[in-house]
What we know:
single chain; Rossmann fold; four-stranded parallel β-sheet; 11 helices; 10 strands; 34% helix; 17% strand; binds pyridoxal-5'-phosphate; TrpB-like_PALP_sf; ACCD_DCysDesulf
Amino acid sequence: MHFLSFPSISVQSLKNLYQPFGVNVDVLRLDQIHPLVSGNKWFKLKEYVKQAQEQNKKQLLTFGGAFSNHIVATAAAAKELGLQAIGIIRGERSQQLSHTLQEAEALEMDLYFVSREMYKLKEIPPVVFEHYEGHDMLVVHEGGYGTAGSMGAATILDHCDQRKYSHFITAVGTGTTLSGLVRAANIGQKIIGISVLKNAFSLIEEINALLPQPLQNRYTLLHDFHFRGYAKSTPELIAFMNQWYAATTIPLDFVYTGKAFFAADQLIKEGYFAEGSNILLIHSGGLQGNRSLPKDSLIF
Length: 300
Ligand SMILES: *Cc1c(COP(=O)(O)O)cnc(C)c1O
C-alpha cells in the first residue's frame, strides 16, 4: 500500500446495540488501515510526508516514548519513502526493548535514547547531526502535533458520509486528531474528545493553538475517563473491552480507544445524547499497544 493512498476504510454500524437508547452509533474503522501502523497516525503524518518529498529531505526525525504508536508510524512512513527514520526516545535504552521500539528498529529506524530531562527540551542531540551527512531532515513534533498534523487529520472524515452525523467522538492524546475533526466538521456537528491523560488541562490551549480563531473551543473535552492515567488501565476497563468485543467483534486498545469508547458507552446509557442523535466513534487504531498487557487479559 502506498503511504498517501488509503484502502477503503469501513464504517461499521452498531444499530442493534444502542437502539434501545434512542441513538444511532457507527464506528469508523481506521484500525483496519494497516496491522502495525494503524489509525490516525497515518493521517497525521500525511502532510509531513508531502513536505519531506517536496523539499527532498533525506531523513525524517521525530520524538516519542517506548510505547509511542507515532514512532512506529514514522518509521514505516520513512521506509516507504526511502528516507532514513530517526527516533529520539525518552529514557535509557532498556535491555529488553518494548514491542513498539522493536518494531521501529525492524523498520530500520535509528533510535537515540536521551534522558528524561533532555527529552523534555525536545532538542536533537549533537551526535545525531554528526551521524547524518548534510543533516537534511524534516523534524516532526512528538505525536505528530502541529498544524500539518491537524490538516492531515482533517481528511479522516472524507472516509465516511460525514453529513449524516450529529456527533463525533475520539480519544485525545495531543489533540491533533481532534483538531482535524473540528476543521472538517460543519456548524452544528459536535466533537467530543476523551482525554487519556490525567488532568491534562493544558490540552485546550494546545488544541486551540492548532486552530484558526473561529474554530477554537468548538469541541468538548472530557477528563473523567483516563483510568488512572496515560497507558494505565483498570479491571473495569479491560472488562469493558472484552464485553464490547463480544457484542461488536471490534477490538479496542487499552491506551486510547478502550477509554474513548467506554466513555461513549457510558454517556449514551446516561442519556447524554438527545434521542435521534447520530454518533460516529473514531476507531483510531493502536491495537499493537495491547501486547504490553498480561497474556489472557483479553478475549481477542
Ligand atoms: C496517538 C493516538 C491517539 C491520540 O491522537 P492525538 O492526535 O495525539 O490526540 C488516539 N488513538 C490512538 C490509537 C493513537 O495511537
